[in-house]
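Changelog note: in this version the structure field was regenerated for every chain. One regenerated record is shown below for reference.
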Amino acid sequence: MKNIVAGRVAASTIEFIELALGTPLDLWLGVEGESEVERAARLDAARDILADNPDFPDRVSQVAAQAIEAHAPELFNVTLLPARPAGRREFRGGVAA
């Protein structure tokens, strides 16, 4: 199955997310070993993007929800349980602790 975002085919999950968000993930997550100056510049750029795009957090949530919905069985290893037969449950008495 091809993942197409904004008319481009994403080659990987990371590329799909970056295309959907319009920014590289490293901008938000940082990179291992970055200096304090690099970190400050990255956070400053992120703040500018958020200021210019107030709907960005909603877009991020939407992309995350779509990814979870599309891949929920694989992510959570979900299996359906058989339906419980209808009938009365036996009461054993006692008090719940």
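Spot check on this record: Residues 65 and 94 are 43 Å apart (CA to CA). The two ends are 51 Å apart (CA to CA).
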